[in-house]
Design a protein that fits this description.
By secondary structure, the protein is α/β, with parallel strands linked by helices. Helices cover 25% and strands 31% of the residues. It is built from 10 helices and 19 strands. The strands form 4 sheets. It has an 8-stranded mixed β-sheet with strand order 1-2-3-4-5-6-7-8. Helix 1 links the parallel strand 3 and strand 4. The protein starts with a strand and ends in a 17-residue tail after the last strand. About 1% of the residues have low confidence. The site of one zinc ion has 5 residues, from loops. The site of one zinc ion (ZN) has 7 residues, from helix 2.
Amino acid sequence: MKATFRQRLLNDPFGDPCLYVRTAREKGALIFDLGDIRCLSPAELHKISDAFITHTHIDHFIGFDILLRIVLRRDIPLNIYGPSGIIRNVEGKLRGYTWNLIREYPTEINVFGIGSRTVTHALFSAANGFRKIIVDKKPTDGLLLDAPLFTVSAVRLSHGTPCLAYRLDGKQQFNIDKDRLQKRGLSVGPWLTEFKKKIREHGVAGTIPIEGRQYRIRQLMDIVRIDKGPVLSYVTDIAINHKNLSTLISFVEGSDILYCEAYFLEKDRQRAINRFHLTAAECGRIARSANVKKLALMHFSPKYEDSPQLLQEEAAKEFGGEVICEPFQKLRQSSRQRQSF
Ligand SMILES: [Zn+2]
Ligand SMILES: [Zn+2]
C-alpha cells in the first residue's frame, strides 16, 4: 500500500517552520507556510498546488516570491489560504513587480482569506496584470479543501494577530486483499482502480464489469480492507491563553502526527506570553491532551541555540509519547542570521 502523504519539514528547528507534503497518488504537493523554502528544487516547487499560510510574519511568508517565479508559466492555478489579511499581503507582493509582458501567461492565483465566519476568494490572473478580483465571500465551517483523497481544514487562533492552525485528514483507504481476490478467481487489473473509485464515490451501490462480466459491488466487498486515513496537524505561533489552547486541543484531536512550535522554555513563560508563542511544555501538553500519536517539534527561539535538547526534553516530558526533532546540528552555524516572529 502506498502512503497517502510523504511529508518533511524543510528546515531545522531554528529555521523557518515549513512543511512540504507530497500527496503520493495525486502526484502533487501541498505546503504549510512559505518561509525559507530555498532548499526545494524547481521540480518540487512546481508540484505545489496549495499553500496554507498560518500568518504573514516574514518567517512564514518570505518564500512567496520564490514560489511565484516558478509557477508563472504553469497552467494549474496556485491556491493560497491564510487569515483574511492575506489577500492584501498577496496584492502588495504582486504590486512590487512590473507585469507588462505576462498577459499571455496562463497564471492564476486564487487567494482565500479566512475570517471568523466567512472566507473571501480573490483571484489574481496574469491576463489582467494581476489586478485583484473578488470572486465571492461565503460562510465557512473551516473546511478549506475537499480533494478526492484528503481534506484540509483550518481554525482561527490568536498570535497577537489572527493565526491559522491546519489539519490534513486522509480519507478512508480501500485496500485489496489479494488472497481473497485469488480465491474468487479474479485477477489483478485496471478494474481495481475503477472499483476503488466507485466505492469511494458511491459506496456499495452499482455494478462493475470484470473480464466481460458484470459484478455487483456489494458482493465484492469481502476483498476490500478499509483503513482509516492518516491525519497530520500543523500548529505554530500561538499565544498561550485558555481560548487558544482549548480550541486547538479539540482541533488536533487524534492526529497521527502533530507538527508544533516549541518556541520557549517554560522558565521563560512570561516572555512566551509577551511574544504570543507557546512553550515546549505547552506544546507537549497539547499533544497529550489531544491524544496525538507523534509530536514533531519545530520553530525554536534562537535564544536556545546552544541547548536545543532542553526544548526537546521539556516537550517530551509533558507529552509522554514519541517526539521527533530534526537534527539541529547541521545548520546551527547560520541560525544567528535568522530572525523569527
Ligand atoms: Zn514565527
Ligand atoms: Zn509569528
